[in-house]
Amino acid sequence: MKVLRDILYKVNIEAVSGGTDIRINDIHFDSRKASLDDVFVAVPGTITDGHDYISKAVDQGVIAVVCERMPETMINGVTYVQVPDSKKALALMASNFYGNPSRNLRLVGVTGTNGKTTVTSLLYQLFKKAGYKVGLLSTVRVMVGDKEFPATHTTPDPMSINKYLDMMSAEGVEFCFMEVSSHGIDQERTTGLLFAGGIFTNLSHDHLDYHNSFAEYRDVKKRFFDELPSSAFAITNADDKNGSVMLQNTKASKYTYAIKSYADFRGQVMENQLSGLLLKIDEQEVWSRLIGNFNAYNLLAVYAAATLLGHDKLEVLRLLSELESVGGRFQHFVSEGKITAIVDYAHTPDALENVLSTINTVRTGNENLFTVVGCGGDRDKTKRPKMAGIAARLSTTAIFTSDNPRSEDPEAIIEDMEKGVEPQDYKKTLSVTDRKQAIKTACTMAVPGDIILIAGKGHETYQEVKGVRTDFDDMEVVQTLLKQLNK
Ligand SMILES: CC(=O)N[C@H]1[C@@H](OP(=O)(O)OP(=O)(O)OC[C@H]2O[C@@H](n3ccc(=O)[nH]c3=O)[C@H](O)[C@@H]2O)O[C@H](CO)[C@@H](O)[C@@H]1O[C@H](C)C(=O)N[C@@H](C)C(=O)N[C@H](CCC(=O)O)C(=O)O
Ligand SMILES: Nc1ncnc2c1ncn2[C@@H]1O[C@H](COP(=O)(O)OP(=O)(O)OP(=O)(O)O)[C@@H](O)[C@H]1O
Ligand SMILES: N[C@H](CCC[C@H](N)C(=O)O)C(=O)O
Ligand SMILES: [Mg+2]
User: Fold this and answer.
1) Where is the Mur ligase N-terminal catalytic domain positioned along the sequence (predicted)?
2) Residue 267 CB partners (closer than 8 Å, separation 6+)
3) Which one of 265, 297, 320 terminates a domain?
4) How far apart are CA 228 and CA 253, in angstroms?
């Protein structure tokens, strides 16, 4: 049992009705989960407003309510705390509730449009190989040392983040690497955490359904660096045009990495093949199993962070060459009939362009490149024509299909995509709504030596249609189909 007054430490409070010297059981921001002696934090959301559920939470037995507007009817025996920003309050309360676990380990946050999962997962692997107990909060999975938990969000809600950090600190975890999404920053999910460092990967088009403009999206990401303490390091990509903007107002020590520009951590791509990358970092050659120029940036960010966290540079370079690629990120296999299938999580125009350019760089002859791609429903619609245009331009054939249509009509999403194809590329595209049939079409058309890229879903093992998730794994599907077709 914790005392409400302690949990409210550092929370900006406007008014209180009732006592705060009361024992509370748990904190909830969803009335459906609140029960006896809990605190209910009413949060305004994108669909509904937690304030509409205060009386329901009180009926369920909560002992305190934290809200931005006091309800008209206040119940005797319940404490009401009015705050200017209940999302911020929730995050600070979550940290306090779990005893501020971020202070018990060194927490590094990674933000940017693409590469967050890759960089955090590589850092997790590297520090594990170096002999530490490590934590990971990522889109793909949560790791508390060697214990794995399923991930629900890229950046979970503050109660979940602090619960995991608390578990980590109990397990003796020394370093935790976490993805910091723009939704996470905007919704204050990371407020109150003590970061030892922050890393910026890159900024390109995504989530413009949620953020009103690209500038707003950029400024939300920047806020993560603005709020880093002076004890932290902030590492940015000097080759990204927004790289320096990110660090403009940070109090943290600033560092840069780059391939094209002058930087504190410089790398050069010597070779880029389907078997991996040969890099030169600090005059040392390093071989990596990771594929694609963009991964050279991810590896440099990892090198910079590991070095700034106190590791010997040569040891870091040695460990870099041992790192495995992350599930669903440029995962590839060659069938018996010599067809290469690549599954990648590229779900933004920039990621798709990078992956296709990489494939086109490593293509050795006249092989055909089939790209199977869709765009998510209930997500940024302006990505759709851009991704389709890129797929058509950079492939021999682009097959447009479904990628988690969610509540939307799958065919309407594909129609939005088709609008982005340049007239000279029309002949190179076809649309097959069912993802399995789309992959089958690519497999049927492919001949020995050809490459099939299946983009957008990466590690995901489901397809979400009208709110229902059914099992679907791109890699499993393509492998089965190629076998069935004797290819
Ligand atoms: C758009 C978005 O980010 N939504 C998140 C947000 O929900 P919301 O604002 O829509 O909440 P709401 O449904 O309007 O409800 C408002 C409040 O009322 C409460 N409520 C609601 C109903 C009720 O009966 N009782 C009740 O108390 C809700 O618990 C909530 O606190 O807050 C919820 C609780 O933290 C999140 O689960 C939810 O994530 C949804 C599921 C989601 O899909 N989010 C995605 C877009 C997201 O966050 N993605 C980023 C990664 C993106 C990337 O970088 O690629 C991520 O970090 O995962
Ligand atoms: N540094 C990078 N620059 C550009 N594209 C990248 C980079 N790293 C990865 N990608 C591409 O972006 C895809 C997603 O990578 P990753 O999962 O690491 O990104 P993320 O930032 O975690 O994405 P999300 O926002 O969904 O969490 C990869 O499959 C690859 O196609
Ligand atoms: N973090 C991203 C993932 C998109 C992956 C894609 N497969 C989709 O479902 O749209 C999002 O939630 O927008
Ligand atoms: Mg991610």
Assistant:
1) 24-98
2) 257, 258, 259, 279, 280, 281, 296, 299, 300, 303
3) 320
4) 10
Distance, in Å, from the CA atom of 263 to the CA atom of 218, rounded to the nearest integer, reads 22
Determine the structural domain holding residue 400 and report its residue range: 331-484
Together in a domain, 56 and 192? no
Number of H helices, E strands in the chain: 15, 26
Question: In this predicted structure, what is the pLDDT of residue 436?
Answer: 98
- Beta-bridge partner residues of 64: 39, 79
On whether both 369 and 302 belong to a single domain, the answer is no
Nearest CA to ligand 1 atom 26: 30
CATH code of residue 193: 3.40.1190.10
Return the residue whose CA atom lies nearest to atom 35 of ligand 1: 157
Residue 325 placed within a domain: no
pLDDT at 211: 81
Residues 21, 167 within the same domain: no
| 459 CB near ligand 3 (under 6 Å) | no
Question: Is residue 352 a part of any domain in this protein?
Answer: yes
Beta carbons of 423 and 393 less than 8 angstroms apart: no
At position 383, the amino acid (one-letter code) is K
- The pLDDT score that the predictor gives to residue 273 is 87
Q: Does residue 479 share a domain with residue 371?
A: yes
Q: Are residues 352 and 258 in the same domain?
A: no
- What is the 3-state secondary structure of 91-143? HHHHHHHCCCHHHHCEEEEEECCCCHHHHHHHHHHHHHHCCCCEEEECCCEEE
The answer on 374 and 239 residing in a single domain is: no
Indicate the residue among 272, 293, 320 that finishes a domain.
320
Residue 212 confidence (pLDDT):
80
pTM: 0.94
Q: Give domain status of residue 373, yes or no.
A: yes
Q: CA-CA distance, 444 to 482, in Å (whole number)?
A: 8
> Does residue 326 sit within a domain?
no
Query: CA–CA separation, 245 vs 255, rounded Å?
Result: 13
Query: Are 91 and 148 in the same domain?
Result: no
CB of 95 closer than 6 A to ligand 2? no
Dist CA 186 CA 184 (whole Å): 6
Answer whether 51's CB lies under 8 Å from 29's CB.
Answer: no
Among protein residues, the one with the nearest Cα to ligand 2's atom 18 is 115
Tell me which H or E stretch contains 41.
Answer: strand 39-41
Q: What is the tens place of the pLDDT at every residue in 335-363?
A: 999 999 999 999 999 999 999 999 998 88
151 C-beta closer than 6 A to ligand 2: no
Q: Which residues of the chain have pLDDT under 50?
A: none
- Ligand 3 atom nearest the C-alpha of 154 is 1
Using one digit for the tens of pLDDT, what is the confidence trace for 195-211?
999 999 999 877 777 88
